[in-house]
Amino acid sequence: MSEPACPPYRLPPPQRQSRRQGWGFAALLLGLVGASLYTLDLRLSEFLSRDAAARMGAFVAEFFPPEHAPAFLHKVLLGAWETLAMSGLGTLLAALAGLTLALPAARLHAHDRARWRGPTRLLLNALRSIPELVWAALLLVSAGLGPFAGTLALALHTSGVLGRLFAEALENAPRGPAEALRVQGVDETRILLYATLPQLLPQLLSYTLYRWENNIRAASVLGVVGAGGLGQLLAFHLGLFHMPRTATILIAMLLLVALVDGLSWLSRRSMTR
Amino acid sequence: MLEGIGARHPQARPGAALALRGLDLKLATGEQVAVIGPSGAGKTTLMQLLACALAPSAGHLGLDGRSPWNLPRRELQALRGRLFLAPQLPPLPPRQRVVTAVLAGRLPAMGLLASLRALVYPDDIPAAFAALERFDLGDKLFERVDRLSGGERQRVGLARALLAPAKLWLLDEPLASLDPARSRQAIGVLSQQARARGITLVATLHQIDTALSSFPRIIGLRDGALAFDLPAAQVTPALLARLYEQHEQELHGQPAPEDDPAPDTSAPVIMQCR
Amino acid sequence: MSALATAAPRRDPAFAARLSWSAGTLLLLWPLLVATEFRPWLLFDPDSLRVSGNFLAGFWPPAHEANFLLLVARETWRTVAMATAGVTLGLLIAAPLALLATGTLSISALGGRMAPLPAALRQLVRALLVLLRSVPELIWALVFVRVVGLGPTSGVLAIGLSYGGMLGKVYAEILESGETQAATALLRNGCGRLQAFCYGLLPASAAELSSYTVYRWECAIRSSVVLGFVGAGGLGQLLDSSVKMFAGAEVATMLLVFVALVALADRASAWLRQALG
Fold this sequence. Notes:
- The complex is a heterotrimer.
- Chain A is mainly alpha-helical.
- Chain A is 79% helix and 0% strand.
- Chain A is built from eleven helices and no strands.
- Chain A is flat.
- Chain B is an alpha/beta fold.
- Chain B contains ten helices and nine strands.
- Mean pLDDT of chain C is 87; it is low at 1-5.
- The longest helix of chain C is centred in the N-terminal third of the chain and has 36 residues, at 66-101.
- By secondary structure, chain C is an all-alpha fold.
- Chain C has ten helices and no strands.
């Protein structure tokens, strides 16, 4: 009878190795979490006392009933329309800018030198790394308060996201139709228009609509730094402790988000039929 | 005119064996040639070579007395505009309409502005209709390509040839998805048009009887080398049997399954924080 | 030749419809431009150009005094710490809620359809999760700042609650899709729900669950920078004050640090997810 590979009470080496790795990871993660909690000086104990709970309860009770005076509702409606317009126009601009940037950022065929691919990808990464709110805060300097800064902020951030997605879609597109035209000696611009983009258009539209869903949420809160829409209204009333009005604005935000989610889903579904 | 040509299969890894070795071939203007052989013989590679889509790894390729790969790019593009390659899988964008897909065959002869205008409104509907009518597809003029059957799509791909400003037609398996009646019609249309316009026609075929009956010259390829290059009348069953040794089912009309690598249509992952 | 003797069509039948759709869409653009006060020429107004010009000119060179860099480093750590603590809190909220919401651990469903009361309970938990994640975390942070005061606590709570909702919903979905036969078999044989989870569901979906959590952690880092703008501390708050003071050099440094942080977190997250999966 042959010797067992390792003594019966120990795991075979590969599994022992992965177990050790697992413990190492767990230790790393726990260490990170522990260090975070320690350095943050969270006053959670204060937060969890009965007194604090009572205060929280009282605070929450102030939100009800939400304000429903017609004059205020009218303002909220205007704010909602402004937010919707911000998100729509921002996404539209981003789709156009994203497509423009995606062309140099993609290697369109096997022999494409794609000299601008590296720098453009860097630009797209920079655009999408910076959150919309940070862009808005920066753009307020030149565009002033109001929804214009918000629209531009959304457009800048989203063009980074869509540019990257569009570039990857361009690179992964089926090559047959484009190759056939290339063999015939057609130049790259017309190959794009006649072969590549017609195949990709539904996918690109779908990404844009999906991104619109994200942008309506972002647009709602951009106003907090002064970029207009419901966010600006919310920050204003919250600062003055008008809790019922804040509650109405919050409900309006949730409804707006649900509306755009629904519209986006319907449009995407009608495109695939 | 190919001399001593060697080339790799377009999707082969570098360092892989040559798909075509030491091939010597001369084609005269206006000739109609059928290329036959078992799968893996290098027929597609030959088509790609002739279409200047693939540079030869060895040997010399001459078209109209000039070596295309030594030409400046603009002239190479102009040269490419004078040939037409129809791949086995019809290269039609799925959601495009047939009229635009067919008229795209004319792009080498159109300027940029005209091409842009044609995207918005097709510029020569009667010509597209006439080309499709020859293949019995006139009523599908404004249909979307992905609503057509495989055979219909193949015929649309062939109709594109009729509109291309080409002097050399290279058809890779033009009858693969067509039933016998349609195959006869298609081959009839293509060879009649080629003869009428003085176009050189080269087609790779698996349907041996069609090849023998419709084409005056037959080239047999096996394992990347020339097996025979004869007028159709001189091709004997013995020659065919030797050509298709160990691939008998293809001799009797069942082509081997095409092993084109599937296009990578994986959608990019949408990484968004929502 | 076909027997169809129809004349060749001369007009494109789809053109009219396309034209009206395009015109309609363009018409819709006008109200959008008005509502967003879209006036790009304002950017090039001489006063505005001067202000932005000065601001941008300050970007080079980026601030690099030692004590400022130290401050930035400390605030960056606080941002990462806030994100980590927030995701941990979110995990603690999401895990039990996901277990409650997933239908895979339903005992009444073993015998065919789920009984109405457990089904209603599960729907309620799902609704709670949707509510938690629908409210943007910035709003949560704004509210908490009023209650708890300025500082990272409000940020941690905001991330914790909204990410708890997100994580919970996705965990419940992961647990329901994928291999559920193991858990169902255990439940059928009389195991408790938690046992069925630990022995049946967890081994199968652990990779996916942890991968998603790490991905969320990466998103949380960006969120915590944003939350700094409403008083939750960290890099965001520093950035906010620097922009308000038009200190271009400081803003430039912080933007660079932030982009590097995001790239680093992206790399770390990709490595972790690959190692876990």
